[in-house]
Design brief:
4% strand; Arc Repressor Mutant, subunit A; elongated
Length: 248
Amino acid sequence: MTGGAGESSGAGAGARPPQLREIGRRARPSIRHAVTDALRSAIISGELEPGGVYSAPVLAERLGVSATPVREAMLDLAREGLVVTLPNRGFRVTEVAAHDLAEVTQLRLLLEPPAVELATPLVPDEAFPALREQAAAIVRGAETGDLIDYLTADGEFHLGLLRYAGNARLTELVASLRSQTRLFGLAELAERGLLTASAREHDAILDAIEARDPARARALVHAHIEHVLADWSADTPSGAASRWERRA
C-alpha cells in the first residue's frame, strides 16, 4: 500500500477535488451512485493518481460515508477498467500510457464524427437551448477550474449528441472509451487557458448542427477530438500530486 500519512499537494490552485456534501443523508442506492460518480470523475481528471493505491476506509473518510458504498463503487469502476482490485490492500488506479490514449482517440475518430454527421438533421430545434447551456457549462468548468463539473458537462454534451444518431450501442461504446481516457495534466491545462480554448469549440459544433451542415459538423468534431489528444495526452506534470489521501 502506498504510504504517506498526509494529503499530497493539489494538482493546481484552480482545480477542486470531488466533493459530496451531506451524502450520508441520501438513500442507499443514491449514495452508491453518488460515490461512484465522484470517484470516476476523480480518476478521469487525475485527482486520483494513475498507479496510486487507495483503501476504501480512507476514501470513505474523505467522502463522509461508510466504507461499504466505496467498496461497491470501486467494484463498479473495476468492471469499467478504471481500477484494479488488490485483495486485502485496496484498489489501484489503472495507468494509461500515451499509446492507450492514441488508440482510444483513433476509435473515437472512427465513431463520433460520422455519428454526429448522421445526427445533425435529427436534432430537434427545441433541443438547442439545453445543448447551448451544456456547452456554456463546459466553458464555465474550464474557466473556474471545476474539473468535475467540466467533465460531467462535457460527457453529457457529447453523449447527448450521439444519442440523436439512434444507435444506443455506439453511444455506450463511446461512453466506455471516454471513461478509459486519462486526462493527464487537466488542472495545469485549465490554469494555462488551454482547456477553455478546447471548451469553446463546442459552440462551433452546435453552430454547424443548428445550420444543418452535416459535413461541417463532422469536420469540427473530428478536429475537436484531435485537439483533445494533442492538448491532454502529455504525462501529469512532475509535482502535480493528488489531493486525495493515499494510504491504507
